[in-house]
Amino acid sequence: MKRRNFIKRASLTGLGLAVAPSIISCETETEKDKKAIATVTPVFPIVVATWNFKNATKAAWEVLEKGGASIDAIEAGCRVEEADLKNTTVGNGGSPDRDGNVTLDACIMNKDGGYGAVVCMENIAHPISVARKVMEETPHVLLAGKGAEQFAVEQGFKRENLLTEASKKAWLKWKEKSEYKPIINIENHDTIGMLAIDKNGDISGGCTTSGMAYKMAGRVGDSAIIGSGLFIDNSVGGATATGMGEEVLKTVGSFLIVELMRQGRTPQEACEEGVRRIVESNPNYTNFQVGYVALNKQGEYGCYCVHGGFGISKYQEGKQTYIKSNSYIKKA
Ligand code: SD4
What we know:
The protein is α+β, with helices and mostly antiparallel strands. The chain has one domain (29-325): Glutamine Phosphoribosylpyrophosphate, subunit 1, domain 1 (4-Layer Sandwich). It contains ten helices and 13 strands. The chain has helices at residues 2-29, 31-39, 54-65, 70-83, 127-137, 145-154, 165-177, 245-251, 253-262, 267-281, and strands at 46-50, 104-109, 115-121, 142-144, 192-197, 203-209, 230-233, 237-243, 290-296, 301-307, 311-316, 319-324, 326-329. Strands 4-3-2-6-5-1-11-12 form an eight-stranded mixed β-sheet. The protein has a five-stranded mixed β-sheet with strand order 7-8-9-10-13, covered by helices on one side. Bound molecules: N-hydroxy-L-asparagine. N-hydroxy-L-asparagine (SD4) is lined by residues 89, 188-191, 209, 211-212, 221-223, 242-245.
């Protein structure tokens, strides 16, 4: 039985290898496709982000409209949510883990494929900026826990208490039952993933979160992990994620979406396929949310999610828009 399965899989793989290149070259070479590509007029700059982050996209836009680089726009935009005490999923004011410690994950990617990240970092309010320092000032790409905090302090970041009274109160209430039940779109959302293209057409991205509320100590989600919570390829575009990080990690979601765009899918089609991969490999998909947003180098964007309720914010041509995402599970 095992052998038969192996032979079947091997022959399918063989078929895939034989067929895929001709499909790809066919798709890019037809006259129809050439016209379709030509009709997309890039309108730069543009910034898109998970959820309805008006202030964050505005801050990013203000950098972009002055001709600033996409990497600066990303850092400025993400910092807005990190500083917002009312956002209990990002930075200062983030919900703690089950032991009451606020631990933060963030990453950033630039147009040159540079990547910097921190995971499980405590006491520093702006992990996106620390991630950028990791990318620009160290020979490494990812620092964790105490090491990340120590590096941040060496770089001039100040230590502060990130557990607000409101977050502490909510955590103490949670502790009464200590039940871990992420509720779709109510608890555990508002991670910011942001993608921006500047006037030169260069794309960068960032993603920052305090992760799932009341997670186990030491738990790291998708947000700071290259290819999962974020991926940027300046020749193709970028993608970023929000929601149940474990599911995004298992499918390397953002990398998958960028690779699908490279093969000719639109950002919308690529996001839909990213969600489909998760849903089809997990019969529990009704119990969690994942949302993706993608942006290609033509300035086209797309978004998709498992459950309704997700949406993205966009700033382009001086105008801010909120776009409601379609979902795999349609509302009854
Ligand atoms: C995580 N993806 O740590 C994050 C959580 C999230 O909005 O996106 N919340 O798994």
